[in-house]
Design goal:
eight-stranded antiparallel β-sheet, 6 helices, alpha+beta, 8 strands, Pnp Oxidase, Chain A, 176 residues
Length: 176
């Protein structure tokens, strides 16, 4: 039953993204580089909205590509650090190797009423401070990971396009 729900959710995300692209002119909040510089508060609000939604969902699904095959797996870590949105994994995992080859990722999450689909590039941040911040916010990970080990990996999301969807509202697209 869980597999059917996950497949249905992924289908809904794909459908909603196509719908959003067809109605792109009405619903996208446009931001160019100069606007981002002028309006950091708006960026923070958009990023915080995405962060809050993913935290509420607790589990999201991260998609990568391996050769020509999509790979999707559940994730649960999301962190705000130095005005960037971060995820966490282990360097020994296939997901880390896939991101190293192709940093373009997608994330999909569902809260029971609405869903989000995120397109982004995942950029490695090897700094101890970034790793420690993630581990401080997820103490249960400290049994498996340490900020100074050779396995802990944190990645921040760049060039983010997040589409919020539901069955009863127009999609809302934000970029940061």
């Amino acid at each position: 039953m869980k597999k059917i729900v996950i497949i249905a959710l992924l289908f809904l995300c794909l459908f909603s993204m196509n719908y959003a692209q067809q109605n792109i002119g009405q619903n996208i909040i446009k931001k160019d580089k100069t606007e981002l510089t002028k309006n950091k508060n708006m960026e923070n609000t958009d990023m915080k909205t995405v962060y809050d939604f993913l935290k509420q969902c607790k589990t999201y699904y991260l998609a990568t590509i391996e050769n020509d095959q999509p790979r999707v797996r559940p994730f649960g870590t999301i962190d705000l650090f130095e005005n960037k949105l971060y995820i966490q994994t282990g360097k020994v995992k296939n997901v880390s190797k896939q991101i190293a080859k192709n940093p373009k990722i997608e994330i999909c999450a569902f809260n029971g009423n609405s869903w989000i689909r995120i397109q982004a590039k995942a950029i490695n941040d090897d700094r101890i401070q970034a790793k420690q911040h993630m581990l401080d916010n997820y103490p249960e990970l400290q049994q498996m990971y340490k900020a100074d080990d050779n396995n802990t990996q944190v990645l921040y999301l760049e060039d983010v396009t997040a589409t919020f969807c539901s069955f009863d509202k127009e999609p809302k697209v934000i970029k940061f």
